[in-house]
Prior knowledge:
Layout: H1 2-26, H2 40-53, E1 81-83, E2 90-94, E3 105-106, E4 109-113, E5 119-122, E6 128-132, E7 137-140, E8 147-159, E9 165-177, E10 181-189, E11 192-198, E12 203-214, E13 219-230, E14 238-241, E15 244-249
Parallel strand pairs: 1-8
Antiparallel strand pairs: 2-4, 3-8, 4-8, 5-6, 6-15, 7-14, 8-13, 9-12, 9-14, 9-15, 10-11, 10-13
Amino acid sequence: MRGRIVLFLVLAVAIALAGVYVGWSTTTPTAVGEPATTTQADSSVGSTRGRAARSVPSRTPTPSLPKAPPPKAIPPKACTPQAAAQPPAHTKWWDPPPPAADQVYFRQVAITSFDDSAQTSISPDNQALTTTFDNFTIAVRKGGQCDVTRSLSMTLPVTGPAPAARLGFYVQGTAYADQGASARLTIRANGQVKVKRFPAGFADSYIHWLKFPVTPGATYTVSVQLEVHQNPDTGGYATLNMTSIDSSVT
């Protein structure tokens, strides 16, 4: 009986000591270097502060792609002169009988032209020639050739007993030039050059002529050149033709 009482007392003392020890440990200050124990409330506040204190990592900027260079300006198409296709030269000779002894007149007239429709007639006194054409025409259209040229030449021998004379050369035809285009007709003979221009907006018939002195016994070559031009940027329609040539010596 007495032993049981002693055992009971020992157990009671042990329990009391254990309770004291547990209470002391819960109030013991946190050692340096050990994390503090926080309550639920402290945990929520700390987490808020932690979020505020944390710096959001900056996103790595996407490298900007190099800008494409501006498109290069395309220069306007170069306007290269192009001669119209010409068939073999067509030559006509005229060898009239000698006229009266006191005249100046033409002999052995030669005409070289791409237009083989050319028809030549001579007056009874052999002092006047008329040549007509059906197909002596050139033209440019938008998107086609920039320039077109065609030419004709006439060889005119002059003979007779007279000491001197004058030769007249007359070209007739029609011309039309739209905006962005033009045409030109040039006559060359005996060292002279005479040009007739047809600017944009011209639409009519024309007569272009050249006169020069001649000496019997000499041969003269007269050339005619037709040209049509087109502006490569604004290009318009143009056409130029020659319907007849009249020549005379007086």
